[in-house]
Amino acid sequence: xxxxxxxxxxxxxxxxxxxxxxxxxxxxxxxxxxxxxxxxxxxxxxxxxxxxxxxxxxxxxxxxxxxxxxxxxxxxxxxxxxxxxxxxxxxxxxxxxxxxxxxxxxxxxxxxxxxxxxxxxxxxxxxxxxxxxxxxxxxxxxxxxxxxxxxxxxxxxxxxxxxxxxxxxxxxxxxxxxxxxxxxxxxxxxxxxxxxxxxxxxxxxxxxxxxxxxxxxxxxxxxxxxxxxxxxxxx
Length: 235
Fold this sequence. Notes:
Residues 27-232 form the Dienelactone hydrolase domain. The chain is of the alpha/beta class.
């Protein structure tokens, strides 16, 4: 989590507002060509709501989903890793989950959304928030963390309803395999579910095509399993 993506100099992508966590939240909404489809929350990396995250939402929309990327930083985008770390630490996990649950409220209220549960896909910080959100909100039925960073204690998975498909890099020193194994054990023991955690010959942030660590083959493999997983769980 130390390299700067291309897009951090640009403003956050925002095209919708909605009530969330007692305030007005902003986000980026992408609709499928048909205009309707299952809903998916896309959760940002620690950089903010960047070009990359908006592009993921657009790609999901092209696959038939209504994708909403909530802006957890209120329009701010980090320009360097130290700033990104500060912004991530300034967002308490409980507040992030509150804002994300508000985004779920908004997504499920849209007439374009055709299901009564949502998927959640997130990256780095956002991958961790996928797990925190799914653990707290049973309306999340499909959770897809990409190299998810857990901040502090593991979530309490006793209320988890979602199936979990996770993607991790074998070369990612910030999330060693032992950490992922502990996470998998917690999911199994507390929820009774069986997470599907997959490893790729790649580093952290291998899915972000705006970074030098981008691994096209690993990213393609992870995407090729994510889309059918979401379709199966969301209908």
